[in-house]
Design brief:
- The structure holds two protein chains of two kinds.
- In chain A, a hairpin with a 2-residue loop joins strand 4 and strand 5.
- In chain A, helix 3 runs parallel beside helix 5 and helix 5 packs parallel to helix 6.
- In chain A, about 40% of the residues are buried.
- A six-stranded mixed β-sheet of chain A has the order 6-7-8-3-9-10, sandwiched between helices. In chain A, strands 2-1-4-5 form a four-stranded antiparallel β-sheet, with helices on one face.
- Chain A is built from nine helices and ten strands.
- By secondary structure, chain A is α/β, with parallel strands linked by helices.
- By secondary structure, chain B is an all-alpha fold.
- In chain B, helix 3 packs antiparallel against helix 8, helix 6 crosses helix 8 and helix 7 runs antiparallel to helix 8.
- Chain B is flat.
- The relative contact order of chain B is 0.12.
- The chains are: A alpha/beta, B mainly alpha.
- Chains A and B meet through strand 1, helix 1 and strand 4 of A and helix 1 of B.
């Protein structure tokens, strides 16, 4: 996936400003930056959930920002997980996970159920298959949301601050899954506030400020030896002993 | 915003979007013309159209009956202007009583359940008969025998039962987490209802409420059945006197015209709420 000169405004407010970013297969790109720096908006633009004002987004060599491209075609191959889980409260955990595979990807009920059960089991949710989401803990809900995204076997996974609403203990159980996915070579773009985690899993870290990527590079460089003063200032604030 | 100009690619995209939009408008227009044209042709080409046109769409009779119908319509308008606020208040009160948890309110709560169940089950026109002919029949001292009064009461009773159920479904649709967070702020149950639940419920029930009110506006014509000179009764009077049904069409048009502003007002209100509360992301 490649993004060139992306621009996005809400009224007079410029949220993304001439932003350029390349994501290669197997990459784990971590977006860091303070709230309001445009991380979420960037992810939403990548999934074509927000109309953009200018720039080009290419996915698998095809320009998907073209108005003639059906966004659903693109989203079939992209998984997205939100900060607030956004599970469907009226469907069971299993039904949440089988909806898209059955209705969009044409799997039979049996195939979809098999795949979902396997993934749910692998992520320690085997006993909650028939439960409704609101009865689960935050960490469990977020793991279900991850499984729901994975059930469509996406080529790219977008994770929007998926641990921001969880307490530290639960953060661990969700990040462990993301770590496994990264190790398995899943391509991911994720917005996060977990710097240690970013350092561990990222192949590339991008620091966003004011709608621009101020600094990008391998985690050792951006997180340990940042060049830009603004990156340094941000890291000083978020890392207690950095 | 300084110094940004759209790239050639973006300009090209805007052209494509405009073209797509034009195509959609065109498709919509063609579909509309075909459907409306088909309906009109179906009516106009029917064998009896000539007779129907003369007896239902006669401009002379429309003009002749207009003043009397307007007089009658004023009665309908007065009736629902009086009934609507009463129904809202009574409906909300019934819904709240059903949600109340205070032990003192238990008998009233039972009464509220019975009220909605029984009243909703009775046809509105039957309630009109019961109130207009039944209550004066009791010969209670100091109670009016006015048909207008008792017909309005019948409408209020009937519709408050419907509206109460609408309010109740709205109240129950507010997510329990809202109640929990209000309780966490140490709000009492009454306060939780008053400041957190009901305001959110009201927003959600505006469309179904509007539905009931449009229905109410029309049902004010039921009083024609107890010989009150409302718009419909006036029209019937004219129609049977002159052997022409045009006044019915005139009344229908007036009823439609009355409900439209209400519908637009509600749309506008809903949009205003969305703009104010969900501006920007999500």
């Amino acid at each position: 996936m490649e993004v060139r000169h992306l621009r996005k405004t809400y009224g007079d407010r410029v949220v993304l400003d001439d932003l350029t970013l390349a994501v290669h297969p197997g990459d784990v790109v971590c977006l860091i930056g303070s709230s309001g720096s445009g991380k979420s908006t960037l992810l939403r633009c990548l999934d074509l959930l927000e109309p953009m004002d200018d720039g080009v987004i290419e996915f698998e060599g095809r320009e998907v920002s073209d108005p003639l491209v059906d966004p659903r075609d693109v989203r079939r191959d992209i998984g997205m997980v939100f900060q607030a889980y956004n599970l469907f409260p009226h469907r069971t955990v299993l039904a949440n996970c089988t909806l898209a595979p059955r209705k969009v990807h044409g799997l039979s009920r049996r195939e979809a159920t098999e795949r979902a059960t396997e993934l749910l089991g692998r992520f320690g949710l085997g006993e909650h298959v028939r439960t409704h989401p609101d009865r689960l803990s935050g960490g469990q809900q977020q793991r279900v949301a991850l499984v729901r995204a994975l059930c469509t076997q996406p080529k790219l996974l977008l994770l929007d601050e998926i641990t921001a609403a969880l307490d530290p203990e639960l953060v661990g159980e969700v990040l462990a899954i993301v770590r496994d996915l990264a190790a398995a070579g899943t391509t991911m773009v994720l917005a996060t506030h977990e710097m240690t985690f970013a350092r561990d899993v990222a192949t590339k870290v991008c620091f966003l400020d004011g709608g621009r990527i101020v600094e990008a590079g391998p985690p050792e460089q951006v997180l340990s030896n940042p060049v830009e003063p603004r990156t340094r200032e941000f890291l000083r604030r978020v890392l207690p002993d950095g | 915003m300084s110094g940004w100009t759209a790239s050639p690619r973006e300009l090209e995209r805007r052209r494509v979007r405009r073209a797509l939009r034009r195509r959609r408008v065109l498709a919509a227009s063609v579909a509309t013309v075909v459907v409306i044209g088909g309906l009109v042709a179906g009516i106009v080409l029917s064998p009896g159209w000539g007779r129907v046109r003369d007896s239902f769409f006669d401009l002379h009779h429309a003009r002749e009956s207009l003043p009397a119908i307007l007089d009658g319509l004023w009665l309908n308008v007065r009736m629902f202007l009086i009934a609507e606020p009463l129904i809202l208040v009574l409906g909300l009160a019934i819904a709240l009583v059903r949600q109340a948890r205070s032990p003192w309110l238990t008998p009233i709560r039972g009464l509220a359940v019975v009220y909605t169940d029984v009243v909703r089950g009775i046809p509105t026109i039957l309630l009109v008969f019961l109130f207009v002919f039944g209550v004066p029949g009791l010969k209670l001292a100091g109670v009016t025998n006015s048909i207008f009064f008792w017909a309005t009461v019948a409408l209020v009773v009937s519709y408050s039962a419907y509206v109460a159920e609408v309010f109740r479904s709205g109240i129950e649709s507010v997510h329990p987490s809202q109640v929990t967070s209000a309780e966490a702020l140490a709000l009492s149950r009454g306060q939780t209802m008053r400041y957190v639940v009901v305001p959110q419920a009201l927003r959600r029930v505006v469309p179904p409420l509007l539905n009931d009110f449009v229905s109410l506006q029309k049902d004010t014509a039921l009083v024609a059945s107890v010989s009150l000179f409302d718009a419909l009764f006036t029209a019937r009077d004219y129609a049977s006197y002159n052997f022409n049904f045009t006044p019915y069409i005139v009344v229908a048009l007036f009823f439609v015209a009355m409900t439209l502003p209400l519908a637009r007002l509600c749309d506008w209100l809903a949009q205003w709420v969305v703009r104010r509360e969900r501006a920007g992301v999500l």
